[in-house]
Design brief:
13 strands; four-stranded mixed sheet; nine-stranded mixed sheet; 8 helices; alpha/beta; globular
Amino acid sequence: MSVIVLGSVNMDVVLSVEALPKAGETIAASAQNLYPGGKGANQAIASARCGAPTAFFGAVGDDDYGAVLSRNLEDNGIDTRGLKVLAGKRTGQASIYVSATGENSIVILSGANHDFVFDDDGGPMPVPAGAAVRLAQFEMPLAAIRAFFDVPGGDAGTRILNPAPALPEGRPLLDLADILVVNETELATYAGAPVNGDPSPEAVIALAHGLLSRPDQWVVVTLGARGLVAVGSGDKISIGGLATEVVDTTGAGDCFCGALAARLSAGEPLSDALGFANAAASIAVSRRGAGSSMPTLQEVVARLGR
């Protein structure tokens, strides 16, 4: 199967700082860089670099950033016929602080991303049909995500939802996904638990079980350097983190989602695909930038020693 991504496209304006600023604090940056980003674009690039035929649906503005980001997707071998260029709109932008330890703080200006709609009148961009691995996140309009997953005829393939950033109003869409991918903060938000509650593996697993809406659904919780845990109605998969030198965590979750989609589209069992995605993310955090940090299939295979 192929991978179809519905998602955001942003230009990331990255400021390198010694430590993330506290509320009301003014600090100096040591460098500024521009990187292609947006959760959707990052995930699509990760999928394509990991060997999957990948198509992208989203929107940019008719500005310089939009032109640069469109070319970047094309240069990564992504089918961009589903990428709209919206006249008079600004391309999405992210302002990102990255500390010396690789941690980040991000503020998003949605721009054209939140003006995306599928055309229901037979126009140039209807909801894509046919079985595929479908991947979406919450940097797009919720109505578009629902249309993307709720395919007429029910032949949507495998639907992966990364409901980030955490939006309580998006909670009903979680039931449409076959695989949910969340981090600990997002898990706590959707489970209605304190964000700084019990971080034990048992607590994470219990909260993840609470998000399951049907027997064939999986909830994957990424745990950063600790790896991940995935739960189904009667099963559990745990994978430990891989030692790596962390340079920049921006886009690590996106890398994980894109790599997971790519390996599932190739027919790998979920446990193997999760291990592959975990290794891919461990490579991404060792590089600067988001979309630019996504590894190739060969690099991940080498990391796993296959």
